[in-house]
């Protein structure tokens, strides 16, 4: 027996692993996901829905408060406007009341008439001061935007379509009509029939 056959391999010799079978893959390990990384889609959707609902309810409450506050502001503005107009008209009413009281004992009708006309002038000035103007009627051309015709009268004294009388005054505030004037409008008299005999002079 030879020397090579008798000597066992030394402990320092390299140890060779047997080759792996073809087609085999080394096992892979997947790290486990932490609790924070696991998200339940249904729970997330429910949380988002709850947040949106809360936002909607807050927005609806804010809008309702804004609507109520705006309504209060409008009502307060209208109330102040009425109070301001009343303060302007009260002196006119006071003078009218005095004129009516003195008219009962007055002997001179002219003085009573002068007093009433003075109060009327004060009333017109007060309306003008608060931005209310009387609609121009008598002598003006009929305007359906500010006039309401209650009668058409045949006449030669005014051109057709002209206002010859005012039954009730109209008023406007700026460009807005408060009340239309009721008026009588002129129209041309009928033309004489053709061939109509005329009286001999």
Q: What's the structural blueprint in terms of helices and strands?
A:
Elements: H1 3-6, H2 41-103, H3 109-129, E1 132-134, E2 147-154, E3 163-168, E4 171-173, E5 176-179, E6 181-187
Parallel strand pairs: 2-6
Antiparallel strand pairs: 1-4, 3-6, 4-5
Helix pairs in contact: 2-3
Question: Overview of this structure, please?
Answer:
The structure is a single chain. The chain is of the alpha+beta class and 201 residues long. The chain contains three helices and six strands, in the order αααββββββ. It has helices at residues 3-6, 41-103, 109-129, and strands at residues 132-134, 147-154, 163-168, 171-173, 176-179, 181-187. The model has no long low-confidence stretch (mean pLDDT 82).
What is shown here, in short?
The protein has helices at residues 3-6, 41-103, 109-129; strands spanning 132-134, 147-154, 163-168, 171-173, 176-179, 181-187. The chain is an alpha+beta fold. The termini are far apart.
The helix-strand sequence is HHHEEEEEE
Distance between the termini: 184 Å
The CATH topology of the largest domain is given as Hemagglutinin Ectodomain, Chain B
- Coarse morphology: elongated
CATH second-level architecture of the largest domain: Alpha-Beta Complex
Q: Can you say what the CATH homologous superfamily of the largest domain is?
A: GrpE nucleotide exchange factor, coiled-coil domain
Domains (count): 2
Q: What is the CATH first-level class name of the largest domain?
A: Alpha Beta
Q: Can you summarize the main beta sheet?
A: 3 strands, antiparallel
Class per helix and strand makeup: alpha+beta
Beta content comes to 15-25%
* Low-pLDDT residue spans: none
Radius of gyration: 51 Å
Compute the number of strand runs.
6
How much helix, percentage-wise, in residues?
40-55%
Number of alpha- plus pi-helical segments:
3
Strand arrangement across the biggest beta sheet: 1-4-5
- Mean of the pLDDT scores? 82
